[in-house]
């Protein structure tokens, strides 16, 4: 071990000339891979969050899929509220209505309609919690895990940011802030494509005079605590659909989730391809760089061999050097990607940090390990094939 | 101690094939001091590389004591080389950014010799070679002769049974060359087996036995004149008479 440590320090010192360029090059490669991962994972972030936050047995949770499409029906929200209210009243103890897993945000109107400037309201406890925002102080709609978040989030979203959406979360922005004013669809942007306006039907802005009035969220979940009533809940929803003209289609969360995954993957296909591509390029380039480095230092290895170091010593030292090299460049790449977040809005920071955390463990560290193993093996194979005389000759 | 039987070494394949050694038979006894002479390109370095386990013969057998060296696995050969061989390369094979001290230290580290003992050994060696003042100098700043002495120092620092030197005096003036040969003689008297490649008959004169290689074949010269420490002797059947 002592011997290997000696070799290691010597090799790093000796390699210093190429160690630094090698470090920089693998750093660049790792930055690219991490960024590719960010892009891809932010696309499927919604899926990841849902997967992680839903801890209720799947068969009890139904998602109210909205099949009702009408861009000009600005009454949809209130009708939907009525439906939910009646549903809750019909099954006061058996069901729970939650928007906890909703990924939607809606606009809250300021107390004085004249003072313009949009504030964003999230209807998502789970998400807010994830963002580290304590929701306990905010008013909740009874029987609903919905939280209204008001002015406290002001400033968390810089003006220009509110116009855009990001990371699979749709933030709905009101253009006009008169109570009850309808949204202008052009100002609402899709999560996948900043330039493509979402249709405005999903959002209904209501008068906030009544604290408890539901701000409509498109993602409504019904948790059926007493599974004996499942059928009658579903039938009731069907009946209420007809009554309120809402067109909800309850669907088990399992199905929803798998659909969501499918859709997310479909829309993130190019990103996924890019990610896979960058991972492959990363492994190939990093290991090739390492091999080139070994070839450049052929003579040095030969001299070590000739002077009594065994191929076992050399292999250990090569693998250790690579471990240090690749781990350092990976960490530096990660650090760089974190530094890039400086000054960005805290919610985005949290999200990306969360993505990093998952991504580093599941993809980047395995990639690093693979690079180390491949580099170690290829170096060992190369060195074992050569005699000291051949290596010393350079 | 060492027995080479029908050793052949072929470099390259096809058009560029070079038969560097062509059926060498050689026996070296323990405590021998052998000079290998021959014209440039005759295969001397190739032979020494094989003796020093720096390279493998294409065919033929190499026995060291009871060990069939040519049949050893790569890992075993590594260990064998580490334990038995001190080697001086023709082009020194020193790392330019090492100091003299670090260069000589290298084989001692490979043998896991503790730090203080290493220092003592190295100090003794550099003193013997007259390069104490160069100890902390970088190889890249040394002259050819100084490098040569450093390379020799590295080869003799560890307690190896066999010392192989490829033209160890090539870069030295005759006075320094003789100093080096005296050192080899001392090492030989201490019981180490020494093989020296040289072009210089005067240098060869310090050795007990002499062989000559021509075009990869050993040629035994009945009458060869060597200058041994300022007196002329003749060599018969590889032995000084
Ligand atoms: N790596 C190699 N690849 C191909 N041919 C080689 C190689 N090494 C040596 N040779 C050839 O083998 C022959 C013997 O070379 P070697 O180095 O043993 O000669 P030498 O007797 O040491 O010569 P010198 O006195 O010039 O050092 C030469 O013809 C040389 O060109
Ligand atoms: Mg030679």
Q: What string, H for helix and E for strand, traces the elements of chain A in order?
A: HHEHEEEHHEEHEHHHHHH
Query: What is the mean predicted local confidence, pLDDT of chain B?
Result: 87
Radius of gyration of chain A: 28 Å
**SS class of chain B:** alpha/beta
Bulk shape of chain A: rod-shaped
Helix content of chain A: 55-70%
Main sheet properties of chain A: 4 strands, antiparallel
- The H/E string of chain B reads EEEHEEHEHHHEHEHEEEEE
What's the oligomerization state? Answer: heterodimer
Q: Hey, roughly how much beta strand do the residues of chain B contain?
A: 25-35%
Low-confidence stretches of chain B: none
Task: Detail the poorly predicted runs of chain A.
Answer: 99-133, 138-217
Find the count of extended strands of chain A (DSSP E, 2+ residues): 7
Number of strands of chain B: 13
Which whole number gives the mean pLDDT of chain A? 67
Strand order within the widest sheet of chain A?
2-6-1-7
Helix content of chain B: 25-40%
Q: CATH superfamily membership of chain B, which one?
A: P-loop containing nucleotide triphosphate hydrolases
- β content of chain A, as a range? 5-15%
